[in-house]
Prior knowledge:
Blueprint: E1 3-8, H1 12-21, E2 28-34, H2 37-47, E3 51-54, H3 63-73, E4 78-83, H4 88-97, E5 101-104, H5 109-120, E6 125-126, H6 149-155, H7 161-171, H8 176-183, H9 187-200, H10 206-215
Parallel strand pairs: 1-2, 1-3, 3-4, 4-5, 5-6
Helix pairs in contact: 2-3, 3-4, 5-10, 7-9, 7-10, 8-9
Amino acid sequence: MTIKILLVEDQKLMRIGIKALFNDYPEMEIIGEASDGKEAVEKTKLIKPDIVLMDIGLPDISGIEAAKQILEYNNNIRVIALTSHITEDEVNASLQAGISAYIIKDIATEFLMTIIKMIKMGAMWLDPQVVPFIRDKNCGVIPSRQLSRGVFKERHANLTQREYEVLKLIVDGQSNSDIARTLTISEHTAKAHVCNIIQKLVVDDRTQAAVKALKEGLV
Length: 219
């Protein structure tokens, strides 16, 4: 099933560039665009997207306020912040508004697409650059729905230590070749580890494996 996306970005050239990224990903479709926060809320109600991919710094009302209004209208919609803003206040306000992912704009295309799929399946994701803003204090904004690392390991004790390392790299968006370079192993071995993880977690693909790891608190 195609993931329907509303793109919200005030810069026209940026919208054109982001839209072009989706040409090679037929499982996702930009079904609408908005250039400010107010229009984003109105378009959401009109076209009912699965995902709202939205900048934070928008004219009229901010992306954070727009996200709040969108989720008050329909909390089944997933809002992803795709932004160059990296302040602690903006990150925490975005999480309080209910966004499902906070992504910095220099992200690799393939990783962006993976995150969108993960978010559609119910995961949350934060760019590593903003994690320090909330680590250890949580700020009361992230739902306490994750299991402890110990409980995850207890439920999935058949994963080896190496497979845990590979799983973390899958969640980080690394390809088999990236994993091979990071762990100094062959690409064939990396692929074998990924296949084993998918089988042991009883999922269909690496994206679902990443979602399960995030939901159950391994990473």
